[in-house]
Structures are given as C-alpha cells and as structure tokens.
Protein: ABC-type quaternary amine transporter
Organism: Heliobacterium mobile
Amino acid sequence: MSIEVRKLSKIFADGHRAVQDVSFELLEGEMTAFLGPSGGGKTTMLRMIAGLETPSSGEIYLSGRRVDYLPPQERQIGFVFQNYALFKHMNVFENIAFGLRVQKRNSAYIRERVSELLRRVDLKGLEQRLPDQLSGGQRQRVALARALATEPRLLLLDEPFAAIDAQLRKELRAWVRNLQKEMGITSIFVTHDQQEALEIADRIVVFKQGQVEQLGTPQEVYNSPQTPFVAGFVGEINRYQTGVKNGFTDLGVLKFPIKHQDGRNVIVVIRPEDVSLVPWSAQEDIQAMVLQTTFLGEFFKVDLELADLIRITAHVPKSQGIGLHPKDRVALRIKSFKTFDGLSQLETVFDPTRRAVQEESIFPVGEAV
C-alpha cells in the first residue's frame, strides 16, 4: 500500500498547530520512520493516517484511494501502540484473535491464523498466558501479532519500544525489521530515537514543529542534511555561527573556502567522526589541546580547544583515544563539513584532502602525541 499526504494540517481546539500543511509520498512495501522531538507532529500525523484523528484540512490517499473521511476500520490498517493496549482479562490467544472475531471469521480460520502468527512472533506455547504473565518484549510481540491478524495492508507503530530496556529494544528492532521485510507490508514506525530510525527504516521523515524538515534514506538524511536541525538531530555535530570573509568562513583557525559573498552569515556543521587527530607538529595547520576524553565503548569522544577558545569534539578509534589525556597537544584535520544559510544547505567548495587554513599557531613546539 502506497501513501500520499497532501497539504495535511491539524489544529486542535486550543489553537495548537500540531501539523502544518504537510505533503509527502511513501512507497509500497517500505518501512518509513517518522522521526522528531516530542511535540514535533509525528504521532498526530500517524493518528490521522490511521483515522484516529480528523485532519483540519488536507487529504490522505492509500494506494490512490482517498481515505481521510473513512473510519479506521475501513482503511485496512494495523496499529501497534506504545503501551501495548492489550486486553488484561484475555490470554495471548484471545488478544491476537480479537480482530478476527470482530470480523466474524470462523473458528477454524481463527485457530489457523493465530497459530501462524504465534510462530512468526516466537510466542508458540504461551497461548494461555495473560498479559501480566509476560515480559515487556513478549507483550509487544502479542500487540504486533494482534495488529497483523486481520491482514492489514499498512502497519503503524507508535514508539512501540519506548517502555522496553535498551538491549531488548535493539533486539526487537532487528526482529521487527526482518518480519516486515518477510511479510512485505508497508509500515510506518514513529520514534524520537535517531539511532532507531537509522537502523530500522528504508526512508526517514524528519519532523519539527509540525512540518517536514526532510524525507530521504538514512544515508541521505545523515550524510546530506538539508537543514541545521536535521544535521543536529540525526547524529552529533559541532555547530558554529559565523560569517564569510574573503571567500572563507570567518572562524579563526577553522577557515574553510565557501562560494558566497563576504559578510553573509552562515552556520558551519562538522560531525565529530569527520575530525581526525594526528601527532602535534608545527607544520600542521590546526593545533589543539585536549580538554577531556570519554570512553564510549566503540570509540573515544575527545573534547578539544583551538585558538580563540573555539572548542570542537572528535570521535576517534579506541586505539588512539586510550593514549590521549587532558592538556595533551595534538593537531587535527577536517575531513568534511557542511554550511547552511538560515534553513537551507549551501554549496561549498572543499577538497577533503586539503587542510583548513590556520593564520597562526596557538601552541609552542612540543612533543608529538
């Protein structure tokens, strides 16, 4: 099932504009993540697609059919809620069978369908357990099986793993992703966790204040953010507000060529993994002092200070980070950066093999780290 949203808005009775004039298209068979901060509009958008909220204006099309005026039960949608929404007095079998009984399916079909779903969600043998006899992960799998029981053409998941611990959440992400691909069902997954969105989605829609900031693949959203918000929300960044002077960003030692007129205000964004550290040398363009190192398992986070008290963070391999200490002198090279003018990304001229220009060294010659 493909999805098209045209100029959709939702204004609540108190005047709050939860969604503002949003349009996008989602492809059939894909897993799409709605990503954004709390209050960004992603859950309201999901509920409008499901028919649980009525749009103030705009249109929703599912496989080319307009549905924004239809009740939820006529949209062929399965919905998985954050809080599971299981019936506490019903066992696992009856929870999964609930929608089928509403559809008045015969007993033989219900037994066969529920049995198939129990196998798919790895809950075989737990049919007679009540929800309070299950773990959080098991309850979420029951909720997913119940949503799939009526064979919906679209599956909507509203932060389904928010109440589950980190390790189990990671396992369930992989499991849901594999199940979705196996079944080929079009799915939308709401989350405020950027890592979750990057791992689970074919494409990501980034929301902010009721509007779409960007729609693209995980690689596009991460590597080519269209706004400063997307750059900072999807991954970590070093962010600097500066101007253009003599064809360069006016950031002291962090001086990058840019194709824009002097005096123009720009935002420079550098991801920590694009800052590489090398041994200190008077010949290196950018020299720095280590302020702090933090071990984060797969890498070290290194906070550094440059000239004019400019600070920058780098992510370096464990083999390099373990030898760094506060007040060590190092040099650094910038592999990549992005510049933005207001809300949009600018074209920049940058050869990643070149080093940023430095006007003067801030440290005297010393030992290399």
User: Anything to note?
Assistant: The longest helix spans residues 166-183. The two ends are 57 Å apart (CA to CA).
